[in-house]
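Narrative of accomplishments. A recurring question from our advisory board has been how the design workflow behaves on a single, concrete structure rather than in aggregate. To address it, we present the structure tokens for one chain from the evaluation set, followed by the sequence designed for it. No filtering or post-editing was applied between the two.
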């Protein structure tokens, strides 16, 4: 049997993208297992969220310069049906900073998270607290996250023990908006530091570049939830600097991937809220929550909803903390998910 060529980190080769279509693409080797059974690859010209471990049988070890040249010419001539690199995710980074950022975060440290009843495949590296993961640790296959307290657990058993003691089933801060089963909580990063930091750690798993991990004090977080008999379930959030040179400055907007089908329904309500908390003298283009990355820090927001919207959709007078969930309602079981709800 012919021995495969030895591949090194940094090598570019062809790899099988879609086996059913015999579709080969150029990849850069980012990491590999010592026994060469698995390779962590970046699909060249594609967003880093698609980086993944692939088996050796999907690698063309006989890739030549001619094969790579032919593939590149084909892409240049015909383009591609998939989304290429999203450089907006790195807005404001210089070339040296971008290089350092990519080197430090080149390999995902968590493959999936369990968040409520969903198991979600992550897209990017996240600099988790050291007690959960540190440089040199192996990849966490599944990280268990309490959807109410946003605390992290390495095992399902730890999460289940935590859930048995759980009494609070809503974010910290004040509920400032409610429309049907959708609520928004305003949370001061200085007053709920750990909760907001953990929210940013989760967000970083789906955003390629985000600077809020530790310094959350200067920000207000507006967390969108869906409410049912089990409690208030986080759908997404946007954050806003408390003090800004601009009249209004959104720092980050994210809808969690497992809820992206609901974005259209929630978008209009969020847009109305953004308009209500922004200065009335700040006109501007519409702003929409992102499902796959941050917007470029818009300096102001305008309503997407007519001012004659139903009065039930306006924030309730004053800031109100919701009542705690009925104590007779048992905590959502970490194992009680519907496999059909898994988000890939």
């Amino acid at each position: 049997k012919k021995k495969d060529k030895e591949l090194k980190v940094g090598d570019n080769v062809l790899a099988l993208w879609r086996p059913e279509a015999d579709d080969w693409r150029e990849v850069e080797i980012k990491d590999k297992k010592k026994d060469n059974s698995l390779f962590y690859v970046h699909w060249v010209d594609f967003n880093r969220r698609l980086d993944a471990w692939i088996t050796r049988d999907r690698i063309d070890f006989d890739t030549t310069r001619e094969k790579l040249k032919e593939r590149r010419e084909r892409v240049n001539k015909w383009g591609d049906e998939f989304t290429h690199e999203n450089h907006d995710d790195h807005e404001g980074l210089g070339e040296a900073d971008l290089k350092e950022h990519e080197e430090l975060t080149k390999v995902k440290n968590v493959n999936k998270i369990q968040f409520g009843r969903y198991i979600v495949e992550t897209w990017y590296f996240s600099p988790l607290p050291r007690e959960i993961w540190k440089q040199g640790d192996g990849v966490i296959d599944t990280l268990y996250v309490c959807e109410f307290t946003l605390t992290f657990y390495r095992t399902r058993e730890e999460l289940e023990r935590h859930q048995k003691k759980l009494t609070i089933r809503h974010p910290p801060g004040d509920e400032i908006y409610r429309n049907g089963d959708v609520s928004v909580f305003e949370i001061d990063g200085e007053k709920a530091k750990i909760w907001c930091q953990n929210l940013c750690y989760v967000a970083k798993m789906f955003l390629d570049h985000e600077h809020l991990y530790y310094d959350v004090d200067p920000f207000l977080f507006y967390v969108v939830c869906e409410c049912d008999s089990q409690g208030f379930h986080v759908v997404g959030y946007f954050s806003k600097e408390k003090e800004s040179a601009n009249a209004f400055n959104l720092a980050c907007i994210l809808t969690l991937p497992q809820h992206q089908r609901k974005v259209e329904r929630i978008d209009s309500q969020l847009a109305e809220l953004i308009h209500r908390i922004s200065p009335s003298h700040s006109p501007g283009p519409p702003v929409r929550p992102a499902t796959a990355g941050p917007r470029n820090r818009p300096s102001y927001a305008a309503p997407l909803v007519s001012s004659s919207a139903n009065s039930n959709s306006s924030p309730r007078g004053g800031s109100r903390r919701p009542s705690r969930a009925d104590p007779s309602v048992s905590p959502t079981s970490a194992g009680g998910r519907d496999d059909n709800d898994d988000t890939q």
